[in-house]
């Protein structure tokens, strides 16, 4: 039987009964095996239903997952992975009753939604978590529109399937027109328990890297390059901590051989809402033969920009408009290290298929990824040249380059020598392709930003780590050491934040509770609003922030095992003075 993804046409979006009809009309494959109200013990089904309204009930439970014949423990919301699509409308008030049927605490964080801080769902920062057998009610006004998602912020549950999509329809007209509306939620499945993965990373951070160099490989490395990497005891192929050696990459909960289809009629404009709900994977997304027009980033509208491919860090969201006309197209989401991919098909009829492109060669790190840049800023390809002759004799841990407020210790094994802004960098593996690739400098806010004041101060934070010990931190201090020392912002102050990456890995840094504007060369009124920014290896990135959401907020790397390993902080926005 063909497997189809649920779509909503524009006509259906307007109908008041759309959500009820969509849930009741799901094809048989999407319903799968039932797990009563999310209680533990059943077989978790792939795909997702839809829920909406003023009161929504969600149940978190455990069960067994089966993906392409591999079995593993899973955590589901309302019996499925991903959890149900929550569809809301801007301006409404919603009450979400979350019942925990697990034998451990759980939580839900509403990623990207502007909510009161005590509704943000981060145990230890904004609420105590949801105990086994208990129900917690999240209640808040819906103040925005766009594509978002939700996930657990308890332990490593996100890796096990505790996530789902969330769409907020605008109170007024959409800024772009489309005939069909689809969600593509990318993620991973592994039969390993996430604590086992964390244990193996801490014992040997290259455990899952099956693409290491050898004298018989065909990587574009000279003998001098190989000697240099060996002397530094580093790997030029250290791209991803967890790879396709254990992961099966998923599209809406389905593996690449499980046939996810998005049906269309040639000539229609299709909105594809792409969410990276992975725990640890960067995806390079493309549709061979079909350009994509990016119209939103992290739920915020941007001026349309046409591209052929883009890289997504974990938790990033891009909405694209496509106009398919051929019989079928393959949607390819390739892991950044190219150890595997997630697949879906755009099909004009059930069962139609397009060729699947062969895997591309794995990329390798270079001088620019080591923070040894000698060119201009902006992420040009020229910054990523050089080899052993450029790196010879260079000290990889020159702590004198760090500012005094960075704590030097065993948690830092590398210091970038010359970090530069690389918001123009399309990402590792995409710098030399022969088609158009998105980068942050191409993004421009569609609606003018509300606050265009000059920042009153600069806050510089360093992303630090020790790869061999698998320790991750801000300014050399892991979260366990600074949980009671938050980053403080005054009410409504305008701050420029500079993030400096002193590691060889790209980090998607996420701020809860607020959007920031990337300092990407646009005028202040049109700097793109985001809540995630990828900071490239050995590089820096800057954003402007208006601290106008009072309370305590999480600030962390969205690579799950990096956050769990210490790269997290608390941001405190002081409450406004009475009458202010």
Describe what you observe in this structure.
8% of the residues lie in helices and 34% in strands. By secondary structure, the protein is mainly beta.
Structure summary:
This protein is mainly beta and 580 residues long. Helix content is 8%, strand content 34%.
How many helices does DSSP assign?
Answer: 8
Tell me the fraction of residues in β-strands, as a range.
25-35%
Mean pLDDT reading: 87
**Mind summarizing the main beta sheet?**
7 strands, mixed
| Residue share in helix | under 10%
DSSP, total strands = 36
Poorly predicted runs: 6-38, 374-383, 386-393
Distance between the amino and carboxyl termini: 62 Å
């Amino acid at each position: 039987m063909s497997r189809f993804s649920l779509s909503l046409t524009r006509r259906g979006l307007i109908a008041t009964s759309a959500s009820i009809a969509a849930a009741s009309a799901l094809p048989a494959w999407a319903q799968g095996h039932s797990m009563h109200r999310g209680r533990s013990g059943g077989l978790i089904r792939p795909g997702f239903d839809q829920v909406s309204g003023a009161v929504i009930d969600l149940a978190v439970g455990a069960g067994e997952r089966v993906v392409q014949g591999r079995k593993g423990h899973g955590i589901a919301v309302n019996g499925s992975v991903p959890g149900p699509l929550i569809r809301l409308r801007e301006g409404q008030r919603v009450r979400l009753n979350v019942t925990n049927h697990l034998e451990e605490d759980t939580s839900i964080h509403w990623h990207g939604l502007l909510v009161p801080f005590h509704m943000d769902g981060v145990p230890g920062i904004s609420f105590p978590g949801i105990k086994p057998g208990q129900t917690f009610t999240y209640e808040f006004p819906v103040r925005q529109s766009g594509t978002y998602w939700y996930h657990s912020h308890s332990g490593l549950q996100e890796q096990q399937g505790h996530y789902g999509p969330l769409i907020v329809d605008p109170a007024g007209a959409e800024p772009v027109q489309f005939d069909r509306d689809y969600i593509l939620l990318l993620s991973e499945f592994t039969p390993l328990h996430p604590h086992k993965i964390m244990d193996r990373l801490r014992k040997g951070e290259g455990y899952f890297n099956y693409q290491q160099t050898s004298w018989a490989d065909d990587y574009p490395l000279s003998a001098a390059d190989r000697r240099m990497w060996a002397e530094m005891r580093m790997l030029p192929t250290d791209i991803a901590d967890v790879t396709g050696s254990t992961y099966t990459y998923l599209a809406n909960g389905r593996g690449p051989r499980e046939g996810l289809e998005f049906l269309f009629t040639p000539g229609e404009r299709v909105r594809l809402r792409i969410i990276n709900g992975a725990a640890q994977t960067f995806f390079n997304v493309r549709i061979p033969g079909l350009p994509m027009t990016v119209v939103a980033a992290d739920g915020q509208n941007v001026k349309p920009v046409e591209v052929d491919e883009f890289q997504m860090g974990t938790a990033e969201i891009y909405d694209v408009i496509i106009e398919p006309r051929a019989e079928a197209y393959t949607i390819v989401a390739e892991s950044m290290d190219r150890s595997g991919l997630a697949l879906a098909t755009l099909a004009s009829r059930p069962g139609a298929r397009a060729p699947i492109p062969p895997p591309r060669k794995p990329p390798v790190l270079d001088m620019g990824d080591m923070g040894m840049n000698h060119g201009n800023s902006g992420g040009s390809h020229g910054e990523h040249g050089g080899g052993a002759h450029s790196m010879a004799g260079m000290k990889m841990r020159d702590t004198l380059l760090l500012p005094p407020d960075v704590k030097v210790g065993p948690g830092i094994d590398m210091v970038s020598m010359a970090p530069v802004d690389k918001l123009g960098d399309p990402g590792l593996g995409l710098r030399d392709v022969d088609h158009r690739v998105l980068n942050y400098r191409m993004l421009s806010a569609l609606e003018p930003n509300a606050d265009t004041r000059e920042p009153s101060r600069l806050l510089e934070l360093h992303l630090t780590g020790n790869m061999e010990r698998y320790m991750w931190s801000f300014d050399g201090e892991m979260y366990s050491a600074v949980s009671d020392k938050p980053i403080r912002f005054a009410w409504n102050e305008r701050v420029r934040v500079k993030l400096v990456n002193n590691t060889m890995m790209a980090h998607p840094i996420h701020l809860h509770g607020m959007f920031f504007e990337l300092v990407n060369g646009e005028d202040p009124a049109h700097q793109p609003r985001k809540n995630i920014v990828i900071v490239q290896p050995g590089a820096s990135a800057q954003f402007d922030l208006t601290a106008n959401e009072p309370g305590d907020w999480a600030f962390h790397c969205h690579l799950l095992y990096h956050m769990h390993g210490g790269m997290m902080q608390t941001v405190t926005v002081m409450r406004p003075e009475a009458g202010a």
